[in-house]
Specification:
This protein has 3 helices and 5 strands. It is of the alpha+beta class. The strands form 2 sheets. Strands 1-2-5 form a 3-stranded antiparallel β-sheet. The protein has a two-stranded antiparallel ribbon with strand order 3-4. A hairpin with a 7-residue loop joins strand 3 and strand 4. The longest helix has 20 residues, at 4-23.
Length: 123
């Protein structure tokens, strides 16, 4: 029989696999702190792909370019429960798909039409 911690770890591993597929990232992990869970996703990178160049400076010799692999991580979602974490991750995914230029143009058109954010007062 599995303990409560083993069951929770198995659920978290299932969630992690789902998040890796959802965001097409290389790594994902869930960190718990202070009763809140945070979803951290990561993408494998190499310094050759980054703008700029890393150099190893040696005394009296020409600098040598240095290339190394690393994981670029970012926190994208949080929640107190697994359901809240999933909801937060889905909202982040939704926001990634928004074309902000179109939204800005629609807002400008809306303002040009004289519409306001506030309801008009009736006398």
């Amino acid at each position: 029989m599995k303990t409560r911690a083993e069951k929770r770890a198995a659920r978290e591993q299932t969630l992690v696999r789902r998040f890796v597929r959802m965001f097409t990232c290389d790594t994902a992990r869930i960190v718990r702190t202070g009763g809140t869970m945070f979803l951290i996703i990561g993408c494998n990178r190499n310094t050759k792909d980054d703008p700029g160049q890393w150099f190893q400076h040696r005394s009296g010799k020409l600098p040598v370019p240095v290339d190394f692999d690393y994981v670029q991580e970012r926190v994208i979602a949080s929640g107190r429960t697994e359901a809240a974490l999933m909801k937060s991750a889905k909202e982040y995914k939704r926001l990634l798909g928004i074309n902000w230029d179109i939204g800005e143009n629609r807002l400008l058109d809306w303002l040009r039409e004289g519409k306001t954010w506030f309801a008009k007062r009736t006398k």
